């Protein structure tokens, strides 16, 4: 097992307070409360939070990736003193600081069904301490024994670049919702010093990757230290070397996020690289990342004095965590079946990947080499990760291992649960090695994070200013029917206009950077129309996402774009650096850029990230998702568009198979067809028909007030049917009532 340096428990809370106090010292006294706000990401989903930092120095705020700590550290003294004289800004700063203090002071909400009755094991719940050595005692979930959420990536905010896409955004939303609901939770991940790759598209449409260094000292983060002021560290033997990791703490509202960092001078240079890049392409290092996340994650919790009541493996990357927990429960070098079962009783697992290639596997000998020096049952661990445990030729799979060391498992939509059960049925059929039955908890999005300001203000007025706390109240959403047509349409127009302004700036810059022609650059600067029907397609560029359906019939697309009822399309997304086929599909899209109206009506944004995603989902009228079924796990970007009044045009796969009711958007059939070419041809035809016969007419049929009444009825139907069902509030409730409580959905 990993070793711990430092007596603990020291959880970094004081270190964050010290960092905030040091930042406050350089600010004019009236602005001092903002330092405390800057060191807790709660500001990013609070009304007025982003605006107050932008008001200090808008240009600097954007240049530093909306990082408030960097903003307050780098902004000129003159700008800070100017801000310190603006009374409205100061009132807002005090309000945000007071709201933060009040939120942190709230009592935790112990989830119903997850705590023992009063008096039972009361001694176990009194204080946090290292993992209980008695595996027969199952701790409750309460502030002393929180849910420990382990994930390889977290999309909390664009200024914290430790995410790649949907998995990270989902993880960030869970932490925010747990904070809002005061559910006891901590999170563990890795501090990637270079994050995920950045993307640049050249003039020919070919993707190039590059990485940017991140200095944790300039993030809203603090390295956890012990009573002697030295960093608390853990040591995990990986590939025969003792790898040292420091622990950084980042506060996401009430939820602490702990990130392990191996960029430590005492480490071997290769080991310092373990936490360099998210999803490192080198399989040797990537396995080391997973060992660190799983085994090191448990060691970090011990070092911090945290004894989790539930361990949630969000994807299989941390699959070794329950084995490390079992070792701690056993209290010696021998991991008994009793200890393993006790760890299993605490562990739940969420799988997100219905594509077999997306579930990592490693040769058994490589796994043996990586974990040989750990006090874990190596042969047993390898068995757990094989579909056929005794097959010496089979590699170790992180998903198989996670299924076998969890008491409950779930997919992230109803259909994904069905696909996962079928895909992993061979694991469940193996005698003697239990595997968790796979249910489902459909993903949801953290509405306060993703809703645009204009739509939020509209809901404040008609749903009540406390509506974000009542998201699950379906009757409340019925009030959307009372919003006047003029106001609902004005809100949608305003958010589209804000997006178009952003697109003109960004796409002009992107095209200049690519070295495109002057005509093509000027088209980006002027052609997009803030009143035109705007379709968004932004997601990871992978073959099964079927970006090529958009270019399958160029004549149709050109006629749609050049019609008298304008249609414009905004696209974004990254292809994995080693996915050559996906890169070529992106390149084929760019082959049309000089044809007809494409330069005026189609924009592809480089380097898609959380901030760009928020702008697009808030502004687009139609959100397009056309994966080859049944390969979409969930698809949360469409949920973000829905809470902003955008309408879905999607394949009946992932969450849309549950959400579509015939009145709240448009659907392409989701049947599985072994003939991929025939299916693509059929789905492209359906897409074209829906766009031409239903979407475009519905948007442009207006009354004498120039309002599309039928369109707004669909918007209302979408908001009422989708906003509460596909919120993170509902998702977290389902986890609390289901997997966390030991139930199977």
Low-confidence stretches: 4-8, 116-136
Structural class: alpha/beta
**Main sheet: strands, sense, barrel:** 11 strands, mixed
Shape verdict: globular
Total number of beta strands: 21
**What name goes with the CATH superfamily of the largest domain?**
Glycogen Phosphorylase B
Task: Supply the number of structural domains.
Answer: 3
Q: Roughly what is the average pLDDT, rounded to an integer?
A: 90
Output the number of helix runs: 31
Terminal Cα span: 33 Å
CATH topology of the largest domain: Rossmann fold
Q: Percentage of helical residues?
A: 40-55%
Computed CA radius of gyration, to the nearest angstrom: 26 Å
CATH architecture of the largest domain: 3-Layer(aba) Sandwich
List the helices and strands and how they pair.
Layout lengths: L2 E3 L7 H13 L7 H6 L10 H8 L1 H6 L4 H7 L2 H7 L3 H19 L41 E4 L15 H15 L4 E6 L7 E4 L5 E4 L11 E2 L9 E6 L2 E12 L2 E7 L7 H4 L10 H21 L6 E5 L6 H10 L6 H10 E4 L10 E2 L1 H8 L6 H7 L11 E2 H7 L3 E4 L2 H10 L1 H4 L9 E3 L6 H4 L2 H11 L10 H4 L7 H30 L3 H9 L6 E6 L15 H8 L5 E6 L7 H11 L7 H4 E4 L4 H10 L2 E4 L11 H7 L3 E5 L4 H4 L5 E4 L7 H25 L8 H14 L5 H10 L8
Parallel strand pairs: 2-3, 2-10, 3-9, 10-11, 11-14, 14-15, 16-17, 16-19, 17-18, 19-20, 20-21
Antiparallel strand pairs: 1-7, 4-5, 6-8, 7-8, 8-9, 12-13
Helix pairs in contact: 8-31, 10-11, 10-13, 11-12, 14-15, 19-21, 21-22, 21-26, 26-27
């Amino acid at each position: 097992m990993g070793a711990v340096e430092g007596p603990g428990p020291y959880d970094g809370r004081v270190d964050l307070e010290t960092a905030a106090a040091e930042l406050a010292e350089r600010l004019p006294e009236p602005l001092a409360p903002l330092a405390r706000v800057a060191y807790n990401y709660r500001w990013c989903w609070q009304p007025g939070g982003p605006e107050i930092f932008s008001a200090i120095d808008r240009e600097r705020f954007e240049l530093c990736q909306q990082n408030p700590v960097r903003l307050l550290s780098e902004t000129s003294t003159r700008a800070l003193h100017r801000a310190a004289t603006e009374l409205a800004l100061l009132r807002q700063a005090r309000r945000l600081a007071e709201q933060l203090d009040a939120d942190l002071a709230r009592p935790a909400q112990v989830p119903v069904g997850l705590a023992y009755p009063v008096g039972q094991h009361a001694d176990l719940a009194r204080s946090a301490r290292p993992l209980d050595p008695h595996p027969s005692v199952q701790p409750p979930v309460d502030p002393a024994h929180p849910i420990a959420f382990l994930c390889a990536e977290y999309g909390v905010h664009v200024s914290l670049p430790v995410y790649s896409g949907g998995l990270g955004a989902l993880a960030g939303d869970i932490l925010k919702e747990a904070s809002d609901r005061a559910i006891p939770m901590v999170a563990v991940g890795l501090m990637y010093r270079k994050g995920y790759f950045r993307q640049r598209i050249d003039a020919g449409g070919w993707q190039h990757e590059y990485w940017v260094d991140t200095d944790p000292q300039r993030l809203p983060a603090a390295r956890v230290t012990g009573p002697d002021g030295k960093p608390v560290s853990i040591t995990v033997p990986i590939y025969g070397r003792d790898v040292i990791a420091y622990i950084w703490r980042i506060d996401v509202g009430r939820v602490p996020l702990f990130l392990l960092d191996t960029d430590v001078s005492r480490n071997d240079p290769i080991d310092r690289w373990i936490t360099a890049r998210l999803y490192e392409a080198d399989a040797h290092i990537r396995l080391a990342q997973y060992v660190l996340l799983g085994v090191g994650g448990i060691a970090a919790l011990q070092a911090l004095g945290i004894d989790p009541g539930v361990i949630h493996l969000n994807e299989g990357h941390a699959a070794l965590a329950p084995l490390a927990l079992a070792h701690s429960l056993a209290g010696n070098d021998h991991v008994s079946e009793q200890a393993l079962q006790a760890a299993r009783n605490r562990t739940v697992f969420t799988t997100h990947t219905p594509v077999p290639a997306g579930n990592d596997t490693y040769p058994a000998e490589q796994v043996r080499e990586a974990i040989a020096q750990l006090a874990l049952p190596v042969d047993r661990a390898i068995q757990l990760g094989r579909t056929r445990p005794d097959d010496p030729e089979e590699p170790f799979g992180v998903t198989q291992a996670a299924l076998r060391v969890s008491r409950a498992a779930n997919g992230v939509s109803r259909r994904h649960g069905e696909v996962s059960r079928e895909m992993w049925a061979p694991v469940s059929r193996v005698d003697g090695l239990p595997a968790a039955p796979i249910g489902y908890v459909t993903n949801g999005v953290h509405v306060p994070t993703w809703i645009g300001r204009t739509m939020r203000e509209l809901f404040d007025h008609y749903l009540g200013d406390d509506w974000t706390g009542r998201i699950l109240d379906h009757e409340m959403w019925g009030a959307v029917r009372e919003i006047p047509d003029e106001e609902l349409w004005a809100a949608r127009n305003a958010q589209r206009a804000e997006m178009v302004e952003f697109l003109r700036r960004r796409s002009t810059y992107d095209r200049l950077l690519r070295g495109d022609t002057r005509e093509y650059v000027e088209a980006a600067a002027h052609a997009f129309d803030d009143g035109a029907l705007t379709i968004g397609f932004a997601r990871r560029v992978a073959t099964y996402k079927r970006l090529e359906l958009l270019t399958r019939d160029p004549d149709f697309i050109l006629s749609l774009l050049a019609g008298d009822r304008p249609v414009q399309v905004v696209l974004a997304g990254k292809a994995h650096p080693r996915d050559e086929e996906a890169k070529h599909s992106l390149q084929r899209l760019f082959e049309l850029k000089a044809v007809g109206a494409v330069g005026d009506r189609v924009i592809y944004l480089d380097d898609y990230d959380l901030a760009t995603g928020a702008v697009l989902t808030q502004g687009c009228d139609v959100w397009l998702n056309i994966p080859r079924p049944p390969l979409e796990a969930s698809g949360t970007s469409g949920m973000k568009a829905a809470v902003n009044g955008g309408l879905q045009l999607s394949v009946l796969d992932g969450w849309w198979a549950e959400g579509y009711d015939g009145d709240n958007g448009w659907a392409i059939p989701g049947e599985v067809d072994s003939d991929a070419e025939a299916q693509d041809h059929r789905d492209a035809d359906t897409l074209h028909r829906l766009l031409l016969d239903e979407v475009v007419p519905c948007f442009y049929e207006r009354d004498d007030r120039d309002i599309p009444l039928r369109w707004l009825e669909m918007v209302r139907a979408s908001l009422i049917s989708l906003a509460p069902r596909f919120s993170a509030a509902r998702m977290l409730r389902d986890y609390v009532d289901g997997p966390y409580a030991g139930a199977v959905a």
